[in-house]
Amino acid sequence: MGASDVSFQPIVTRGENAAMPHYPGGDGVIGEKDSLLMDFGCRFEGYCSDMTRTLFIGEPDEDVKEIYEVVLRAQEEGERAVQPGVAAEDIDIAARRVIEEAGYGGYFNNRLGHGIGIAIHEAPNIIRGNRMTLAEGMAFSVEPGIYIPGKIGIRIENCVVVTDDGCEALTRFPKEIIILK
Predict the structure, then answer these.
(1) Each residue of 87-105: pLDDT tens digit?
(2) Strand 5-6 vs strand 113-115: parallel, antiparallel, or unpaired?
(3) How does strand 47-48 pair with strand 42-44?
(4) Which H or E run includes 63?
(5) CA angle 34–40–41, rounded 5-degree value
(6) Strand order of the sheet with strand 166-169?
(7) For the domain bounded by 5-179, which CATH number is listed?
């Protein structure tokens, strides 16, 4: 009745290592004020899932909280932009605009999302330049991130499916900041 497997090798990283969007892993001890980025998914009835959340061990500094809130607003704006008939790039542009207007545009160095289904990465890529028209039933990730080398990486990822009037989030996990004390 549950998942049959993971959909990819999970990414779990902390602190400054999270500034590499697909960090391969390493040793280290999680400490006070560390961030913890977790990207994982499972396979259910042949289909993949994918989600990322960033949480914090202890109270993060105010500038880190601000970065988290920018990423959260970008993720929400990306989801709001999803409509049947719009180009895939329009979703990227909407989310990226939030990050750019907050002054972090140079630190969002990845696509906004990717299709998801039988494979973990499928069409459509949600990225500037992809004019593919979105249609009802398409499923993809919306995963903005801010990656500041030597400091931190923060990403929030949901998978969504295009509906007749927008999208439905397939990921059912809170996006608000999580602080473990």
Answers:
(1) 999 999 999 999 999 999 9
(2) unpaired
(3) antiparallel
(4) helix 62-81
(5) 160
(6) 122-126, 113-115, 139-142, 158-163, 166-169
(7) 3.90.230.10
